[in-house]
Amino acid sequence: MTVHVPPWANPEKDPRYPHLMKCFTDFLSAVRDEKAPLDFFSFHCYDRPDFAEKQIAYCRKTLDDYGFTATEMSLNEWLPCDGGGRMSDLGTPRQTAEIAAMLCLMQNGPVDDAEIYDAKARGGAYAPLFAPETRQPRKAYYVFLAFNELRKLGRAVKLPAAPEGLWACAASDGEGNAAMLVANDTKRPIPLPYDFGAYRIVRSRVIDATRTFDDAPLAAVVGPETTWLLTLER
Question: pLDDT tens, 104-113?
Answer without folding.
Answer: 999 999 999 9
